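Please decode residue identities from the backbone states below.
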């Protein structure tokens, strides 16, 4: 049985120069938009891959492991965004207003956390941080000098930061998509996170994230006092 090629296959062969004809000999082919097949390339890793992250981090059985991200208001504008960090074990949520979705903005948020908790105890409170493999976290690995190990998810896999994604949804109750963050002050953003941290969670035995995280901090600083 003789095989008959479909029109689409013939056009594809024509564009690939696999027929003894040129495109100009078949004017109709020029009217058809030729679609190139683009292969998505893996982005260059900003640092240590999530594949190297200890299993205990994913399990959430040890306190001190965070997932970080940024929350955008109006995507079209270059304006303030919110840097967020959620501690996986206690679900404690940190939200800091930063000038923009840039490396400088993320660095300013981490500098605030370093000042708040102290450089000496930073790596005990934040043993690891996991971030998206995106431009604003380009310089995140430099904070490993404080003793915190930084890990990066695979590109386009937000589910590898499950807790942060869930909390981003909760924050959207206060900051719906498309709403400008410029209209909120630093204190407004902090209060939003505080409100979420005061909510009892069934997964936490109906304790609040704030209760559990404060108890964790007490343990960390108690060690400092003893030593």
């Amino acid at each position: 049985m003789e095989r008959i090629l479909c029109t689409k296959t013939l056009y594809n062969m024509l564009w690939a120069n696999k027929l003894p004809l040129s495109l100009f000999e078949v004017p109709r082919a020029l009217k058809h938009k030729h679609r190139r097949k683009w292969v998505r390339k893996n982005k260059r890793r900003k640092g240590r891959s999530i594949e190297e992250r200890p299993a205990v981090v994913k399990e959430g059985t040890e306190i001190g492991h965070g997932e970080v991200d940024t929350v955008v208001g109006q995507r079209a504008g270059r304006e303030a965004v919110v840097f967020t960090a959620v501690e996986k074990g206690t679900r404690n949520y940190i939200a800091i207003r930063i000038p923009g979705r840039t490396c400088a903005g993320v660095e300013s948020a981490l500098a605030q956390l370093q000042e708040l908790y102290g450089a000496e105890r930073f790596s005990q409170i934040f043993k690891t941080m996991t971030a998206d493999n995106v431009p604003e976290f380009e310089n995140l690995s430099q904070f490993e000098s404080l003793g915190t190990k930084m890990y990066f998810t695979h590109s386009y896999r937000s589910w590898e930061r499950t807790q942060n994604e869930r909390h981003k949804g909760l924050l959207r109750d206060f900051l719906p998509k498309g709403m400008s963050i410029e209209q909120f002050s630093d204190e407004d953003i902090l209060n939003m996170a505080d409100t979420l941290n005061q909510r009892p969670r069934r997964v936490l035995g109906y304790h609040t994230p704030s209760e559990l995280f404060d108890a964790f901090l007490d343990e960390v600083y108690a060690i400092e006092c003893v030593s």
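Observation: The longest helix spans residues 209-226.
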